[in-house]
Design brief:
The complex is a heterodimer of chains A (187) and B (135). Chain A is an all-alpha fold. Chain A folds into 2 domains: 95 residues, Rna Polymerase Sigma Factor, Chain: A (Orthogonal Bundle), CATH 1.10.1740; 72 residues, Orthogonal Bundle (Arc Repressor Mutant, subunit A). Chain A is built from 8 helices and no strands. In chain A, helix 2 packs across helix 3. Chain A starts with a helix and ends in a 14-residue tail after the last helix. Chain B is mostly helical. Among the domains of chain B are: 51 residues, no CATH class; 43 residues. Chain B contains 7 helices and no strands. Classes of the chains: A mainly alpha (187), B mainly alpha (135). Chains A and B meet through helix 2, helix 3, helix 5, helix 6 and helix 8 of A and helix 2, helix 4 and helix 5 of B.
């Protein structure tokens, strides 16, 4: 997701149609991030709407020295994490979603792994899912995630390692890799 | 070290998320252990797969774009109606809602103060009009 500085400037000047253009260019990426954190389509749509209201309100205060895409992702992650935290008290379950096919150039094995993993993400506990999505899918640092979630870097790492291990176990149970317990120990 | 001591560190090892001294111990073990090497390979495959997950977008519901635009356009009109406010009108509403008690107390104090000021003004004016004129 890339937003040009020119578009941002037009939006900040209040140019007619500029904010609509920003939404059109970014809403798929923002929805995807939110979906991967909240885990179901209906909630993801609600949270995405909330994200753009926050963006609308926050644009006046946006300093412009940070990358606007990074800022949008931060607003989205914050809204999604807030929603998940509130929902954990209500205990609403997550649903699998239909996903588009990956590009052919990625290779059959890699595409199969990614499809399996995207579905496996939905089965993770919410706190583990949020961490592994932000770290391994979107490339955030553990420190950034900790700040966003209001927790320590160490706590983020614990969740991250557990999530990776569970996902590896999912690949093993799907027969993609050999499960650890079936391997011959050599030390 | 034994595999069961090393294994909890492997998910961090494959992502480069361990401290240097811990990573060194894990590297030494993995280099000499086929089982932990295979486990590390599985975890690397997970990371590679997750990086690919981010490369594709989940298709949002068809109505979402229109709904976002409607919501923000509605607020845009409200912003036009309140052009003198230094912050959006939604924010004003939220601040009023969050600080309702404080605002009610301040309003009460303001009414009492205005009443006292008026009474004082009346008293001063009455005293002046009662004074005899001096030529």
């Amino acid at each position: 997701m890339q937003v040009s500085p020119q578009l941002l400037e037009r939006v900040r000047r209040g140019e007619p149609g500029a904010f609509e253009e920003l939404v059109q260019e970014t809403h798929r990426s923002i929805y995807s991030l939110v979906y991967r954190i909240v885990g179901n389509a209906e909630d993801a749509a609600d949270v995405t709407q909330d994200v753009y209201l926050r963006v609308w309100r926050g644009l006046r205060g946006f300093r412009g020295d940070a990358n606007v895409s990074t800022w949008l992702y931060r607003v989205a992650a914050n809204a999604a994490l807030t929603y998940v935290k509130r929902r954990q008290r209500g205990g609403v379950p997550t649903d699998p979603v239909e996903l588009p096919d990956l590009p052919e150039s990625d290779g059959a094995d890699a595409r199969a792994d990614a499809e399996l993993l995207e579905r496996a993400l939905a089965t993770l506990p919410e706190s583990q899912r949020a961490v592994v999505v932000l770290k391994d899918v979107y490339g955030w640092t553990c420190e950034e995630i900790g700040k966003q979630m209001g927790t320590t870097e160490g706590a983020v790492k614990v969740r991250l390692f557990r999530a990776r291990q569970r996902l590896a176990d999912e690949l093993a149970s799907a027969g993609v890799v050999v499960p650890m317990k079936k391997r011959k120990k050599t030390s | 070290m034994r595999c069961d001591q090393i294994r909890p560190y492997l998910p961090g090892f494959v992502g480069g998320d361990l401290r240097a001294d811990t990573a060194e111990v894990v590297t030494q073990h993995v280099d000499s252990c086929a089982a932990c090497t295979a486990e590390s390979d599985s975890l690397r495959r997970v990371r590679a797969g997750l990086a690919l997950v981010g490369a594709r977008e989940v298709e949002p519901p068809a109505w979402l774009l229109e709904s976002i635009l409607e919501n923000t356009a509605d607020r845009g009109h409200r912003r036009v109606l309140a052009p003198m406010l230094p912050i959006p009108i939604d924010e004003v509403a939220r601040l009023v809602s969050d600080h309702r008690d404080t605002i009610a107390s301040a309003a009460g104090v303001a009414v009492v103060a205005a009443g006292a000021a008026y009474a004082l003004w009346r008293a001063v004016r009455g005293t002046r009009s009662a004074q005899p004129a001096t030529s």
